[in-house]
Specification:
The chain is of the alpha/beta class and about 120 residues long. It has one domain: Transcription Regulator spoIIAA. Helices cover about 35% and strands about 30% of the residues. A hairpin with a 6-residue loop joins strand 1 (about 5-10) and strand 2.
Length: about 120
């Protein structure tokens, strides 16, 4: 079972146009408030293009999804976007089941997300 820890590594592309949030661990009731705060701050700042790498997440619940959706809405209000990176497995399956592949731009790699190319589509 996943533990209630979340590692968030925040970097920016060389030109500063995209902020990258690489997540590892569990994004759940205990850990989502810190991510929500960081994402909302980024969505309101000058860099509205945000990429969230979910490939190292072990667990994602509805509160974690809520943090991502809230950031997506805030970035959209500021003419920005939140793009997700997910590989085949539990997290991508959850995004499919909840219909969020139709809401978020989801990519197989960080490079594809930054380039806004090769988006995965809902099946």
């Amino acid at each position: 079972m996943a533990t209630d820890t979340l590692s968030i590594d925040i970097t920016a592309t060389a030109d500063g146009s995209v902020q990258l949030f690489a997540l590892a661990g569990s994004l759940d009731l205990a850990t989502s408030p810190s991510l929500r705060s960081a994402l909302l701050t980024a969505a309101e700042g000058e860099k509205h293009e945000i990429v969230v790498d979910l490939r190292q997440l072990e667990f994602l619940d509805s509160t974690g999804l809520g943090a991502l959706i809230g950031a997506h809405k805030r970035a959209s209000e500021h003419d920005g976007s939140v793009r997700l990176v997910a590989s085949e497995g539990q997290i991508l399956r959850l995004l499919r089941i909840t219909g969020l592949l139709d809401v978020f731009a989801v990519y197989p790699t960080v490079e594809a997300a930054i380039a806004n190319d090769a988006r995965l589509v809902g099946l």
